[in-house]
Structure formats: structure tokens, C-alpha cells
Amino acid sequence: MNPKIILDCDPGHDDAVAILLAARECEVLAITTVSGNAPLHLTTANALLICQLAGLDIPVHAGADRPLLVPAAHAPRAHGATGLDGPPRPEVYLEAASADAVRCIIDTVRSHDDVWLVPVGPLTNIALAIRQAPDIVERIAGISLMGGAVGAGNVTPTAEFNIWADPHAAQIVFGSGARVIRMAGLNLTHQLCVGPEVITALRAEGGTVPSFMADLFDFYLAGYRERAGLEAAPMHDPCAVLAVTRPELFTFGARQVDVETEGGLTRGMTVVDERPGTDAVPNCDVAFSIDAAAALELIGDTVCSYG
Ligand code: BDR
Ligand code: CA
Questions:
Q1: Which pLDDT belongs to residue 1?
Q2: Taking CA 294 as the corner, what is the angle to CA 205 and CA 288, rounded to the nearest 5 degrees?
Q3: Any residues with Cβ below 6 Å from ligand 1, and which?
Q4: Rounded-to-integer distance, Cα 27 and Cα 57, Å
């Protein structure tokens, strides 16, 4: 039986892949959106656009339009001003099911057993849901998130964007006591990269979704090439979906992870206790490696399956 998930996202090029993948690999009870790569009205429209293009009948609920305490910040350098720059943008005719993602998360978890929360943007919605309804923590199967890093960050030397964008929310999530928290951080997601050969294969496949995704990947890869000199671009967000549906592709290590919320140089850093023999109590299964070839093949096949 496919796992039941709520995908909390801020599309975002790699979020778009996560949506397509989740819809094939999971029972997606809801997609919830958050301010992150772009302002909330755009991340919501982008989630609806992906559902529309792929013919997905999944309710999309708009959520938090700003972080808990820090000012909203976005990622136009990686995702463009719209959050999904690259392809020509069709008109979006689908509409959001509600503007209350937090209510949706709480009600869905309370009415279904063993739901996975899969956040792949800033953790604002998840933290608000946990704060408003602490009972949901015991009801969920787990939280599989894309965020953080063991090692270098991307938005600052020490911080990854999703955690940096709302560090206080992230600390609530890591400190929630959820029975399983899986973390796909940058140390992991940079192992799963899309290069020109994937784009060529999607163009050769043709069809609305593969062609749209090829255009998205072109834009996304050009940014990584320019900023970081990379010839292939990391597929961050699909890793959090695969950590639920295909855990056998990963190696995990149990670690204590906390978030620096205030540090002048280190705000948003995931502080992972790597000390040998530490008596720290692990709260997180940190992903350290992925079978990238298998994951990439699955992603390619999934995108092509939409035609
Ligand atoms: C994360 O930030 C966003 O730009 C991506 O969608 C991903 O969720 C990577 O740091
Ligand atoms: Ca994202």
C-alpha cells in the first residue's frame, strides 16, 4: 500500500519534481504551500499549475505567507521571480481548496492513521500545525524533510535555504518528539543531480509534462552552472519523498540535530552531533547516501509517465 502523505512545498523547480513523484509513489492526501522560493501566491499558483499540467486531482491548500519571526526571503536566483521560471507559463485555472494549510494538516492527520508529513520548503506550516495541535505529533508516521546539511550550506556558508528561511519553525519541528524524522540535507541531495543528458531524454520523449520539465531543468541547471560551476543540478526535494517510499535506496545515521536560530554567522545551521561516542539522544535519521542512479532512473520514468 502506498504511504499516505501531505506534501508541504514551495514550488520551485525541484518541488515540481517532488509533486510528480509523490503523486505516483504515494497517496497524496493534500499539497500544502508555503512562502519560500517565491511569495505564497506564486508557490500556490505553481503547485496548482503542476497539478493542472499533470492532471492530478489533489487538493492544494495555501499556508503561511511569512515565517514565524524572521522576515520573508525568497530564492529568485535559483528559481526565478515566479519560482518556476523557464518554460512559457500557461494560464492556471485550478483553484486552491483553501487558504488554511495548517487546518488542513491538523484535520488530515487527525482523520487518517499513519500520515507522513513531507515538507520540502521552509517549515512554517508544519511548526504552526504542531504548535496549534500537539496531538498530531503522536498520530503521524513521521516527518521526512528536505532541509539542512551536514557540512556546507547554500544560502550562507553554514545554512541551507529551507532551514535558514524559518529557523524557529525548523527548531520546533526537530524538537517535536516525532517518532521518526528523516532529514535529506544538502550533503545528500547533491548526490542526486540532473544533467544535460536527462534534459535531452525528456525532450526526446516529448509530451506536455516531459517538455515542460525539460524547460524547467534547463533554467535550473543554467543557474547552478553560473553560480556554482556545476554541470548537473541537485534534485533536493524529491529526496524527501523517496526517503519515505524507497528508504532502501538510502543510508541513514541516527543523530541529534538542532537548529541555530540566532547566530550571527550561523543562523539556520543544522547542528548535527557527529562526535564519536556522544551521549546525545538522536532525534533524527540523517540521510548520508543515496543510490543516485536508481533514483534518477525513477525520476526520469516518472516524469515521462505523465506524457
Ligand atoms: C531547497 O531550497 C529550495 O530552493 C529548493 O526547492 C529546496 O527545497 C534547497 O536548499
Ligand atoms: Ca523546495
A1: 84
A2: 135
A3: 12, 14-15, 37, 75, 78, 120-121, 146, 154, 160-162, 236-237
A4: 11
Query: Atom of ligand 1 at shortest distance to CA of 234?
Result: 9
Strand partners, 106: none
Instruction: Kindly state the percentage of the chain with pLDDT values over 90.
Output: 99
88-103 per-residue burial string, b: 16 or more CB within 10 A, e: under 16: eeeebebebbeebbbb
Catalogue all structural domains in the chain, each as residue range(s) with its CATH number. Answer: 4-196+216-295 (3.90.245.10)
Q: Reduce the DSSP state of residue 148 to 3 states and report it.
A: coil
pTM score: 0.98
User: How many Cβ atoms from other residues are within 10 Å of residue 207's Cβ?
Assistant: 14
Angle subtended by helix axes 124-132 and 101-111, to nearest 10: 60
Strands 115-119 and 60-62: unpaired
The CA-CA-CA angle for residues 248, 186, 256, to 5°, reads 75
**pLDDT tens digits for 127-143?**
999 999 999 999 999 99
- Nearest residue (by CA) to ligand 1, atom 10, is 161
Regions of the chain with pLDDT less than 70: none
Do the Cβ atoms of 192 and 295 come closer than 8 Å?
yes
Ligand 2 midpoint to CA 53 (Å): 19
* DSSP-derived pairing of the beta strands 284-290 and 181-184: parallel
| DSSP-assigned states of every residue in 232-297 | SEE-HHHHHHHHHH-GGGEEEEEE-EEE-SS-TTTTT-EEE---TT--PPP-EEEEEEE-HHHHHH
List for the chain the helix, strand, coil content (%; round to 5): 45, 20, 40
